[in-house]
Predict the structure.
Amino acid sequence: MSPATSEKTTPTATTAAKTATTAKTDPAPAGTGRTGGPAGTSRASAADGRIPLRSHLRHTSALVRRNLLWIRQDPESMFDAVLFPIVFTLLFVYVFGGSIGQSLGGGQDAYVQYIVPGLMAMMGMNMAMGVGTGFNQDFNTGVMDRFRSLPIGRGSVLFAKIAVEVLRMLIATAILLVVGVLVGFDITNWPGLFAAVGLAVLFGSALMWIFITLGVAMKNAQSVQAMGFLVLMPLQFGSSIFAPTQSMPGWLQTFTSVNPLSSLADAARGLMVGGPVADDLWLTVAWSVGITAVMAPVAIHKFRTKS
C-alpha cells in the first residue's frame, strides 16, 4: 500500500474506532431494559432530574399497566380490598350497633349512619399499610432493583404504585357503600358522598407515602406490618371512627381532637349524613397536603439511595 493510500485510510479507521467506543458507552434508551450493570444504574440516577414531564407520565402509565396486569394474574391480591369492607361493616353493625346506637339515640339504624363514614376513613389507612408491605416484598424479590436499573424517573415507580392502590381503595369504598346500603345506610346527599370519597382518597394517598418510606427503610415485610399496627391501632381506636368521643376520658378526648382520623371521619359524616363540615374538612386537607409535602420527597430519596 502506498503512503498516499495509507494517509487516506487512517482518518477512516480512527472514526470507526471512535464510533465503536461510543456505541459501547452510550446508555440504552428508555424502555429498552439495557443498562450496562452498575454504570447504567448510576447514569439513570444522574439523569433522573433531566427526564421531561411527558416521559415521566409515559413511564408512570406503563408501570400502572404493569401493576394492573400483575393483579389480573394474582386475583388473591384483591382479597383485602373486597373482604375488608364486608367483614368490618357487618362486624361493627351487628356486634356493636345496638349498644353504641343507643348512646346515639337511635339504636342500630343510627349506628349504621355513624359507622359507614367512619369505616371509609379507616379504609384508607389500612390500604396504606398494604402499600408498605407490598413495596418491601418487591425489594426483597429484586423487582425494585430491576426498576432502579432502568433509565426511568424514580418517582414514576412510586406514583404508579400509589395510583394502583388508589384504584383498589375506590373499589373497596364502592363495596363498603353497597354493603352499607344493604344494612340500612341512607344516601341522601350524592354530591356530599362523592366529596367524602375524594377526601378519604386524598388522605389515604398521603398516608401511602409514609408506609412506602417504611417499606423502603425496613428489612422485611413483617417489620413493616408490625410498625403499621403500632401506628394504626392507637389512631383508629383513639378517634371518632367507631364511637362518639364524649364518653371518653379527658386525656383521650384531647388526643382524639387532634387525631387526623377523627377529622376525616367527622368531615365524611357531615358531608354524607349532615352536620358541621368546614373545620374538619379543611383540617383533613391540611393534614393530607402536609404529610405529602414532607413524606413524598423522603420516600423518593430513600428509594433512590437504598443499597
